[in-house]
Amino acid sequence: KTVMAAPMTDAHRRFLQVLMSHGIMEGSEVRTLHRRCCEIHKVYYAHDKVEDFINTINRHLQPLFMQIRKGMSESDGRSHYALVNLAETEITKMASDYTENELELFRKTMDLIILSENGFASSTDILNLADQLKTKKMKKKEAEQVLKVFVEDKWLSERNGEYTLHTRCIIEMEQYILSNYHDVARKCNICHSLAIQSQVCESCGIVMHLPCVRKYFRAQTEPRCPQCNDFWSWDIP
Protein backbone atom coordinates (compact mmCIF):
# COMPACT_ATOMS: atom_id res chain seq x y z
CA LYS A 1 0.00 0.00 0.00
CA THR A 2 1.27 3.46 -0.83
CA VAL A 3 -1.16 5.29 1.47
CA MET A 4 0.08 5.31 5.04
CA ALA A 5 -2.72 5.14 7.59
CA ALA A 6 -2.72 8.19 9.85
CA PRO A 7 -1.34 7.08 13.21
CA MET A 8 -3.57 6.47 16.21
CA THR A 9 -2.90 9.05 18.91
CA ASP A 10 -3.87 9.06 22.58
CA ALA A 11 -6.80 11.27 21.53
CA HIS A 12 -8.07 8.48 19.26
CA ARG A 13 -7.53 5.89 21.99
CA ARG A 14 -9.43 7.91 24.58
CA PHE A 15 -12.27 8.51 22.11
CA LEU A 16 -12.53 4.77 21.40
CA GLN A 17 -12.49 3.89 25.12
CA VAL A 18 -15.32 6.29 25.93
CA LEU A 19 -17.41 5.10 22.97
CA MET A 20 -16.82 1.48 24.01
CA SER A 21 -17.98 2.17 27.55
CA HIS A 22 -21.20 3.77 26.23
CA GLY A 23 -21.85 1.26 23.44
CA ILE A 24 -23.62 3.99 21.46
CA MET A 25 -23.45 7.79 21.48
CA GLU A 26 -25.51 10.53 19.93
CA GLY A 27 -23.90 12.69 17.21
CA SER A 28 -23.63 15.84 19.33
CA GLU A 29 -22.00 13.86 22.18
CA VAL A 30 -19.54 12.37 19.71
CA ARG A 31 -18.59 15.83 18.40
CA THR A 32 -18.07 17.09 21.97
CA LEU A 33 -16.02 14.00 22.81
CA HIS A 34 -13.90 14.52 19.68
CA ARG A 35 -13.08 18.06 20.77
CA ARG A 36 -12.34 17.05 24.37
CA CYS A 37 -10.02 14.21 23.37
CA CYS A 38 -8.07 16.48 21.01
CA GLU A 39 -7.78 19.21 23.65
CA ILE A 40 -6.69 16.86 26.44
CA HIS A 41 -3.99 15.24 24.29
CA LYS A 42 -3.07 18.44 22.41
CA VAL A 43 -3.86 16.90 19.04
CA TYR A 44 -4.90 19.05 16.04
CA TYR A 45 -8.66 19.65 16.25
CA ALA A 46 -11.06 20.80 13.52
CA HIS A 47 -14.78 20.72 14.24
CA ASP A 48 -15.65 19.42 10.75
CA LYS A 49 -13.10 16.58 10.86
CA VAL A 50 -14.88 14.14 13.16
CA GLU A 51 -15.50 11.67 10.28
CA ASP A 52 -11.78 11.71 9.36
CA PHE A 53 -10.93 11.20 13.02
CA ILE A 54 -13.26 8.17 13.18
CA ASN A 55 -11.93 6.81 9.86
CA THR A 56 -8.41 6.78 11.33
CA ILE A 57 -9.68 4.71 14.25
CA ASN A 58 -11.58 2.41 11.88
CA ARG A 59 -8.47 1.71 9.80
CA HIS A 60 -6.70 0.59 12.97
CA LEU A 61 -9.69 -1.49 14.06
CA GLN A 62 -9.86 -3.34 10.73
CA PRO A 63 -7.57 -6.24 11.71
CA LEU A 64 -9.72 -6.70 14.85
CA PHE A 65 -12.92 -6.89 12.75
CA MET A 66 -14.40 -3.94 14.60
CA GLN A 67 -15.82 -0.73 13.20
CA ILE A 68 -17.40 2.50 14.42
CA ARG A 69 -20.60 2.88 12.44
CA LYS A 70 -23.01 5.75 12.06
CA GLY A 71 -26.77 5.26 12.12
CA MET A 72 -29.96 7.19 12.70
CA SER A 73 -32.45 7.16 15.53
CA GLU A 74 -35.77 6.17 13.98
CA SER A 75 -37.73 8.20 16.49
CA ASP A 76 -36.10 11.60 16.04
CA GLY A 77 -33.76 11.25 13.05
CA ARG A 78 -30.62 12.15 15.03
CA SER A 79 -27.35 10.51 14.06
CA HIS A 80 -25.70 8.04 16.42
CA TYR A 81 -22.37 6.20 16.46
CA ALA A 82 -21.83 2.68 17.72
CA LEU A 83 -18.91 0.27 17.87
CA VAL A 84 -19.80 -2.82 15.85
CA ASN A 85 -18.23 -6.26 15.86
CA LEU A 86 -17.92 -7.52 12.26
CA ALA A 87 -16.38 -10.90 13.07
CA GLU A 88 -19.38 -12.56 14.63
CA THR A 89 -23.01 -12.30 13.76
CA GLU A 90 -24.50 -10.13 16.46
CA ILE A 91 -26.80 -12.88 17.70
CA THR A 92 -23.74 -15.02 18.53
CA LYS A 93 -22.21 -12.03 20.27
CA MET A 94 -25.35 -11.71 22.38
CA ALA A 95 -25.04 -15.40 23.20
CA SER A 96 -22.22 -14.69 25.62
CA ASP A 97 -24.48 -12.35 27.65
CA TYR A 98 -27.82 -14.18 27.66
CA THR A 99 -29.17 -17.66 28.24
CA GLU A 100 -30.63 -19.70 25.38
CA ASN A 101 -34.25 -19.04 26.26
CA GLU A 102 -33.56 -15.30 26.71
CA LEU A 103 -32.04 -15.28 23.22
CA GLU A 104 -35.03 -17.14 21.84
CA LEU A 105 -37.34 -14.56 23.39
CA PHE A 106 -35.24 -11.82 21.76
CA ARG A 107 -35.41 -13.52 18.36
CA LYS A 108 -39.16 -13.94 18.62
CA THR A 109 -39.54 -10.30 19.72
CA MET A 110 -37.46 -9.28 16.73
CA ASP A 111 -39.75 -11.30 14.45
CA LEU A 112 -42.79 -9.51 15.86
CA ILE A 113 -41.20 -6.08 15.43
CA ILE A 114 -39.88 -6.64 11.91
CA LEU A 115 -43.05 -8.32 10.65
CA SER A 116 -45.30 -5.66 12.19
CA GLU A 117 -46.90 -2.83 10.23
CA ASN A 118 -45.26 -0.03 12.21
CA GLY A 119 -42.07 -1.46 13.69
CA PHE A 120 -43.45 -2.05 17.19
CA ALA A 121 -44.54 -5.07 19.22
CA SER A 122 -46.78 -4.81 22.27
CA SER A 123 -45.62 -6.20 25.60
CA THR A 124 -48.78 -8.36 25.66
CA ASP A 125 -47.82 -10.05 22.39
CA ILE A 126 -44.22 -10.53 23.51
CA LEU A 127 -45.22 -11.94 26.92
CA ASN A 128 -47.61 -14.37 25.21
CA LEU A 129 -44.57 -15.87 23.49
CA ALA A 130 -42.79 -16.52 26.78
CA ASP A 131 -44.59 -19.78 27.51
CA GLN A 132 -44.18 -21.02 23.93
CA LEU A 133 -40.38 -21.00 23.95
CA LYS A 134 -38.83 -24.23 22.63
CA THR A 135 -35.64 -23.96 24.70
CA LYS A 136 -37.31 -23.49 28.08
CA LYS A 137 -40.62 -21.85 28.86
CA MET A 138 -40.53 -18.59 30.76
CA LYS A 139 -43.00 -17.23 33.31
CA LYS A 140 -44.53 -13.81 32.54
CA LYS A 141 -42.73 -12.18 35.48
CA GLU A 142 -39.43 -13.63 34.30
CA ALA A 143 -40.04 -12.46 30.72
CA GLU A 144 -40.87 -8.94 31.94
CA GLN A 145 -37.52 -8.88 33.74
CA VAL A 146 -35.67 -10.09 30.62
CA LEU A 147 -37.33 -7.38 28.50
CA LYS A 148 -36.16 -4.80 31.04
CA VAL A 149 -32.59 -6.07 30.63
CA PHE A 150 -32.85 -5.92 26.81
CA VAL A 151 -33.89 -2.27 27.17
CA GLU A 152 -31.06 -1.50 29.63
CA ASP A 153 -28.55 -3.19 27.31
CA LYS A 154 -29.87 -1.11 24.38
CA TRP A 155 -31.14 -3.95 22.20
CA LEU A 156 -34.75 -2.84 22.56
CA SER A 157 -36.41 0.44 23.42
CA GLU A 158 -39.83 0.77 25.00
CA ARG A 159 -42.56 3.39 24.85
CA ASN A 160 -45.90 2.98 26.63
CA GLY A 161 -45.69 -0.81 26.64
CA GLU A 162 -44.65 -0.97 22.98
CA TYR A 163 -41.21 -2.31 22.06
CA THR A 164 -39.02 -1.58 19.05
CA LEU A 165 -35.37 -2.17 18.15
CA HIS A 166 -32.96 0.25 19.79
CA THR A 167 -30.82 2.42 17.47
CA ARG A 168 -27.76 0.50 18.66
CA CYS A 169 -29.40 -2.79 17.72
CA ILE A 170 -30.26 -1.49 14.23
CA ILE A 171 -26.69 -0.23 13.63
CA GLU A 172 -25.19 -3.49 14.90
CA MET A 173 -27.65 -5.86 13.28
CA GLU A 174 -28.42 -4.16 9.97
CA GLN A 175 -26.63 -6.84 7.90
CA TYR A 176 -28.03 -9.67 10.00
CA ILE A 177 -31.60 -8.37 9.62
CA LEU A 178 -31.29 -7.67 5.89
CA SER A 179 -30.00 -11.18 5.21
CA ASN A 180 -32.27 -13.06 7.63
CA TYR A 181 -35.47 -11.20 6.85
CA HIS A 182 -34.70 -10.45 3.20
CA ASP A 183 -38.31 -10.81 2.08
CA VAL A 184 -39.61 -8.24 4.61
CA ALA A 185 -36.69 -6.09 5.78
CA ARG A 186 -36.50 -2.94 3.65
CA LYS A 187 -34.19 0.00 3.24
CA CYS A 188 -35.52 3.54 3.47
CA ASN A 189 -36.01 5.11 0.03
CA ILE A 190 -34.49 8.37 1.26
CA CYS A 191 -31.47 7.50 3.42
CA HIS A 192 -30.96 3.90 2.19
CA SER A 193 -30.46 2.41 5.64
CA LEU A 194 -32.61 -0.27 7.24
CA ALA A 195 -36.09 1.00 8.16
CA ILE A 196 -37.98 -0.64 11.03
CA GLN A 197 -40.36 2.14 12.08
CA SER A 198 -41.58 3.35 8.73
CA GLN A 199 -44.41 4.22 6.37
CA VAL A 200 -45.03 2.23 3.19
CA CYS A 201 -46.34 3.63 -0.11
CA GLU A 202 -49.71 1.96 -0.72
CA SER A 203 -49.15 2.05 -4.48
CA CYS A 204 -45.56 0.97 -5.09
CA GLY A 205 -44.50 -0.37 -1.69
CA ILE A 206 -41.37 1.70 -1.03
CA VAL A 207 -40.67 2.46 2.64
CA MET A 208 -39.50 5.60 4.40
CA HIS A 209 -38.35 6.23 7.98
CA LEU A 210 -40.66 8.56 9.89
CA PRO A 211 -37.96 11.26 10.28
CA CYS A 212 -37.21 10.93 6.54
CA VAL A 213 -40.93 11.22 5.74
CA ARG A 214 -41.10 14.35 7.86
CA LYS A 215 -38.05 15.90 6.20
CA TYR A 216 -38.97 14.88 2.67
CA PHE A 217 -42.54 16.20 2.74
CA ARG A 218 -41.74 19.35 4.69
CA ALA A 219 -41.27 21.35 1.51
CA GLN A 220 -44.17 19.83 -0.43
CA THR A 221 -47.70 21.21 -0.55
CA GLU A 222 -49.14 17.84 -1.51
CA PRO A 223 -47.28 14.75 -0.31
CA ARG A 224 -46.49 12.46 -3.25
CA CYS A 225 -44.41 9.28 -3.27
CA PRO A 226 -40.80 9.97 -4.36
CA GLN A 227 -40.88 6.75 -6.38
CA CYS A 228 -44.27 6.50 -8.16
CA ASN A 229 -45.62 10.03 -7.55
CA ASP A 230 -48.92 8.71 -6.16
CA PHE A 231 -50.58 10.55 -3.29
CA TRP A 232 -48.99 9.66 0.09
CA SER A 233 -51.95 8.57 2.15
CA TRP A 234 -50.32 8.41 5.59
CA ASP A 235 -50.34 11.17 8.17
CA ILE A 236 -47.08 13.05 8.02
CA PRO A 237 -45.50 12.81 11.50
Rounded Rg: 20 Å
Q: Regions with pLDDT < 50 over 5+ consecutive residues?
A: none
Helical element count? Answer: 9
Report the principal-axis shape. Answer: globular
Catalytic activity: S-ubiquitinyl-[E2 ubiquitin-conjugating enzyme]-L-cysteine + [acceptor protein]-L-lysine = [E2 ubiquitin-conjugating enzyme]-L-cysteine + N(6)-ubiquitinyl-[acceptor protein]-L-lysine
Domain RING-type: 188-229
Family: Belongs to the NSE1 family.
GO cellular component, one term: Smc5-Smc6 complex
How would you characterize the overall build of this protein?
- With about 240 residues, this protein is of the alpha+beta class.
- The chain folds into three domains: about 55 residues, Alpha-Beta Complex (Aspartate Aminotransferase, domain 1); about 90 residues, Arc Repressor Mutant, subunit A; about 50 residues, Herpes Virus-1 (2-Layer Sandwich).
- Helices cover about 45% and strands about 15% of the residues.
- The protein is built from nine helices and ten strands.
- The strands form four sheets. The chain has a three-stranded antiparallel β-sheet. A three-stranded antiparallel β-sheet has the order 4-6-5. A two-stranded antiparallel ribbon has the order 7-8.
- Strand 7 and strand 8 form a beta hairpin.
- About 30% of the residues are buried.
- The model has no long low-confidence stretch (mean pLDDT about 90).
- It comes from Ceuthmochares aereus.
- It is found in: Chromosome, Telomere; Nucleus.
- Its EC number is 2.3.2.27.
